[in-house]
UniProtKB/TrEMBL annotation:
It holds the Pfam family HDPD. Gene3D superfamilies: Head decoration protein D (2.40.300.10). This is Head decoration protein. It comes from Endozoicomonas montiporae.
Length: 122
């Protein structure tokens, strides 16, 4: 049986017009699915998946990856939803084993950017 990967932007409920919610960024350090909650590294400004135990900036939610990207062999350009959007929680990719408190902190950080995380499959 094949499992379908998340489609680009599938997690989006709404976003600002004229691509105002989208920013071209540099992604590093792995292969990530659409809807992955991302953190931004302080040292170089690149983005990687949220790591709640991190200490280099990626412990803070900075946006949501729009589409799948494989940056495991080197940095890649990608689109990040980082402003004025509504996203569906059930379709986001959170770190394995994230605690309720850490997820709440990430949701709060996204909300500060105008990204509202909605529960369920609205």
């Amino acid at each position: 049986m094949k499992t379908e990967q998340a489609r680009a932007g599938e997690f989006l409920l709404s976003e600002a017009e004229s691509d105002r919610s989208r920013t071209q960024v540099t992604v590093t350090g792995g292969s990530y699915e659409a809807g992955t909650v991302m953190g931004q590294l302080t040292a170089d400004g690149k983005f990687t998946d949220l790591k709640t135990s991190g200490t280099d900036g990626n412990q803070n939610a900075a946006g949501v990856l729009y589409s799948r990207v494989d940056a495991s062999a080197g940095d890649m350009q990608a689109v990040l939803i980082d402003l004025d959007a509504q996203v569906i929680d059930d379709l986001l990719v959170w770190p394995d084993g994230i605690t309720a408190a850490k997820k709440d902190a990430a949701v709060t950080a996204l909300l500060a950017k105008g990204i509202k995380v909605r529960s369920g499959a609205i």
